[in-house]
Design brief:
The complex is a heterodimer of chains A (260) and B (206). Chain A is an alpha/beta fold and 260 residues long. Chain A has helices spanning 32-42, 58-72, 86-95, 104-108, 111-120, 157-167, 188-197, 211-219, 230-233, 239-248; strands spanning 5-13, 16-18, 47-51, 77-80, 99-102, 125-136, 139-146, 151-156, 171-175, 202-205, 225-228. Chain B is an alpha/beta fold and 206 residues long. Classes of the chains: A alpha/beta (260), B alpha/beta (206).
Chain lengths: 260, 206
C-alpha cells in the first residue's frame, strides 16, 4: 500500500534555512544540509526547499545548496521558488533535486509547465497552487493568487488544477492562503475538491498546527501527501508523532527508522 | 569496474554516491567501449521510454548493454532502466525496447481514483524464498518501503523473472531478476537504509 507522505518544507534565503529554530543541538540550525539530514533521520518521506531569495543572483547559491544536500541525503527532495525558465528547472534537477515546483511562472507562462514536463518528465514537474477564498458578485470563489499570495489572477483553483494536469504537471502542492500560518488546520474543502478533480497526487499545505490536522487533510481532504513547516520546525511535534497518529487512524505510513 | 550508464537522462550522482557509501567507486560513462568492458553495469534513468531508447541508440549503447546481459554479467536496472529491458514500451505510442525480456511496459490504469504518477514510498513484497527476501525484506509480514516515482509499469510474459510485487490498485511487478541481472522499478538510491542494503547486496552477492 502506498504510504501517505509527510513532507517538511524549509524556506531558504541566500542558501540558509530561515524560520527553523527547533534543532538547538545542531551547531548551525540554518545549514540546509544539517537540517535535511536531521529530517531524514526523523523519518520525513520527502523534503521541500522553497527559495525565498528575491534577487536573481541567489540562483547560484541555491544550486550550490541543492548539490550539497543531494550529496548528503538518500531521500527525494523538491526545490521551488523563482523558477522562471526551462533552464532554471534543468539546472536544479541536474544539481540533484528530484522534482522542481513552479508557482507564479506557471500562471504567467503556462507553456513552461509543458516544456519542463517534456524535458524532465511529469514525475519531476510540480505546480504550486495558492488559492484564497474571495467573494465576487456575492458568490464565493476560490481564486488562485501568485507572488506569495499578493497578486490575484482571476483564475479559479479547481479549473487551474485540471489545467496544470493537462499541461503535464505530475503533482500539485496546494497551499490554501486563508489557512497558511494560522495553525488552524488545512482547508479540507478546497483540498478535497482539488484532489478529486485531478488524477495526479495532491499535496495539502497551509495551516498545520497539530498532528490531527495532517490526518484530517488525508482523511477528509483526500490529500495524497501533507506538507508542513512551522509545526515541525518549532518543535510542536515530530514526524514520528504524526506518523503514529496517522497509523492509529488507519492511514498507511512508512515506519520511522529507515535513515542511512 | 562498476559503471553507471549515462545517456543524458539527468542526475546520476545520487546513484554514484550510494555506491561510494559502500566503498565502491562507480564511474559514470556514455562511452560504448567502456560499457562493453564493465564488470558491473548500472542502467538508471527517468523520463520517457522512447527518448531513453533514442538516446541509447544515438550513443551506440544498445549493443554493449545487450551483450553484457546475454553474457550474464552483473547488471542493475533502476526505474527506466528496468522498463527498457522489455520488448515494447507504450509511452507515447509503441516503441521497441532492449528486448531482453518478453512483455510490455504500460501505463497504470487510471480508473478507480488511482493517482498517477505512482509517487512515494510503497511496500515491496519479494518472491518467497528469493535471496533478496532474506537480505532486503527481513520481515515478510511487514514488507519494506522503497521510493517509487513512475507512471508506467512492466508486465513480464514470463512470470518466473518476477522478483517482487507491489500493490497499487492491484499488484504490479516492482522488480525482476534472472541470473546476475536485477532490475527495480523503485529507486534504491533514494530509499534510505533499505535501499542501501539492496545496493550492498548487488555489490557483494550478484
Amino acid at each position: 500500500m502506498l504510504a501517505k507522505r509527510i513532507i517538511p518544507c524549509l524556506d531558504v534565503e541566500k542558501g540558509r534555512v530561515v524560520k527553523g529554530t527547533k534543532f538547538l543541538e545542531l551547531v548551525d540550525a540554518g545549514d540546509p544540509v544539517a537540517v535535511a539530514a536531521r529530517y531524514e533521520s526523523e523519518g520525513a518521506d520527502e523534503l521541500v526547499f522553497l527559495d525565498i531569495t528575491a534577487s536573481h543572483e541567489g540562483r547560484a547559491i541555491m544550486l550550490d545548496m541543492v548539490r550539497r544536500v543531494a550529496e548528503t541525503v538518500f531521500m527525494p527532495f523538491t526545490v521551488g521558488g523563482g523558477i522562471r525558465t526551462l533552464d532554471d528547472a534543468v539546472e536544479l534537477i541536474h544539481a540533484g533535486a528530484e522534482k522542481v515546483s513552479i508557482n507564479s511562472s506557471a500562471v504567467k507562462t503556462p507553456e513552461l509547465v509543458t516544456e519542463v514536463a517534456n524535458r524532465l518528465g511529469s514525475c519531476a514537474t510540480v505546480v504550486n497552487i495558492d488559492p484564497k477564498r474571495v467573494v465576487k458578485d456575492g458568490k464565493e470563489v476560490w481564486e488562485v493568487f501568485v507572488n506569495g499570495g499578493r497578486v490575484p489572477t482571476g483564475i479559479e483553483a479547481v479549473d487551474w488544477a485540471r489545467r496544470v494536469e493537462q499541461l503535464g504537471a505530475g503533482e500539485i502542492v496546494l497551499t490554501c492562503m486563508d489557512r497558511d500560518g494560522t495553525r488552524d488546520g488545512y482547508d479540507l474543502e478546497i483540498t478535497a475538491a482539488v484532489s478529486r478533480a485531478v488524477g495526479i497526487p495532491v499535496v495539502a499545505s497551509g495551516g498545520a498546527g497539530k498532528p490531527e490536522h495532517l490526518a484530517d487533510a488525508i482523511e477528509y481532504g483526500a490529500a495524497d501527501a501533507v506538507l508542513a513547516a512551522g509545526i515541525f520546525h518549532f518543535g510542536a511535534c515530530t514526524i514520528s508523532d504524526v506518523k503514529k497518529l496517522l497509523a492509529s487512524r488507519g492511514i498507511p505510513v512508512r515506519p520511522v527508522g529507515g535513515h542511512v | 569496474m562498476l559503471r553507471i550508464i549515462d545517456y543524458g537522462s539527468g542526475n546520476l550522482r545520487s546513484v554514484q554516491k550510494a555506491f561510494e557509501r559502500h566503498g565502491v567507486t562507480a564511474e559514470i560513462t556514455s562511452d560504448p567501449n567502456c560499457v562493453a568492458e564493465s564488470d558491473r553495469l548500472v542502467l538508471p534513468g527517468v523520463g520517457a521510454f522512447s527518448d531513453a531508447m533514442a538516446a541509447l541508440r544515438e550513443r551506440g549503447l544498445i549493443e554493449p548493454i545487450q551483450r553484457h546481459v546475454v553474457a550474464d554479467r552483473p547488471f542493475l536496472g533502476i526505474c527506466m532502466g528496468l522498463q527498457l529491458l522489455f520488448e515494447t514500451g507504450w509511452e507515447g505510442g509503441q516503441h521497441d525496447g532492449l528486448g531482453v525480456f518478453a512483455g510490455a511496459v504500460s501505463r497504470f490504469d487510471c480508473s478507480d481514483d488511482l493517482k498517477v504518477p505512482h509517487m512515494g514510498w510503497n511496500q515491496v513484497k519479494w518472491r518467497e524464498g528469493s535471496h533478496l527476501s532474506q537480505v532486503v525484506g527481513r520481515n515478510a509480514q511487514q514488507p519494506e518501503f522503497f521510493y517509487f516515482v513512475h507512471s508506467y509499469c512492466v508486465q513480464p510474459s514470463d512470470s518466473s523473472i518476477v522478483a517482487a510485487e507491489t500493490d497499487y490498485g492491484g499488484m504490479f511487478c516492482s522488480a525482476v531478476s534472472r541470473g546476475r541481472l536485477l532490475a527495480t522499478q523503485f529507486h534504491p538510491e533514494k530509499s534510505q537504509s533499505v535501499g542501501m542494503r539492496l545496493l550492498k547486496y548487488f555489490i557483494e552477492h550478484v
